[in-house]
Amino acid sequence: MSRVVVVGAGVIGLSCAVRLLETGHQVEVRARDLPPDTTSAVAAALWYPYLALPQDRVTAWSAASYAAFDDLALTAPGSGVRMRPGAEVFTETPADPWWRDAVPQLDRTADVPPSYTAGWTFTAPLIDMPVYLGWLAERVESLGGSIVQASLDALPGPGDDGATIVHCTGLGARDLAGDGSVAPVRGQTVVLEQWGLDRWWLDAAGPTYVVPRGREVVVGGTDDAGAWDRTPTATTAADILERAARLVPEVREARVLRHVVGLRPARPAVRVERDGHVVHCYGHGGAGVTLSWGCADEVAGLVAA
User: Fold this and answer.
1) How far apart are alpha carbons 282 and 3 in whole angstroms?
2) Is the pLDDT of residue 160 over 60?
């Protein structure tokens, strides 16, 4: 098999690296930011197709990732992946979601918090990102790959040991791929101490979400298009907590552990395609985790083609 350099060490880059190593390639991951310092590390990481298009490809990638996470929850207890029931709620009765075929079962419910009138429930993967990124990095290394911290001014050329380049830098694609269509969508969250919550809640219109982890509960959020500021604000945090408490009243009494901001790499369409010696995989918006394994499978196919 061939030599591959994966550029980017977030959830997309690491997932691609794992799939490529599993199919026999020699893989080196190069990244300015190591996994704990990436945007992926601060994601709430509830499986949900959000801010990502086109719908048909996103549905297929999401379904493949759902199946992969379901398997990890069963077979890799140290991965930080759990399957948990939850509900998306609405103020009016909605049509079925466009991504309906990506989940095995989705049931409508009238058991919703006050001020909401309808909802649906389904079991979704919840991913504890600090744990999961560490697991992915260990998986890369256990398969014989390497992760190297390096600042790149440009993507490696075809003369780099004849390697295929898999480009997974998210917002970095603005510079490395000259793609001005990639833009940030700022998301602020508040991380709370876990009080025993094991069910997730979502109002995508906010977006407002309450996502339980093992020792924490992540509540959010915001979707500020074009905003680059990574500094959390107290006003926004207060608004997030107020909205989240409408979904789960216990939020009001929970101890705040920290405030976090991440910049989602949005694009009019997710780019997964081959261009010469480079396979691009970026522009996943708010669905990087949700699409990760499906996109990694496609990337592995493009590298082998």
Assistant:
1) 21
2) no
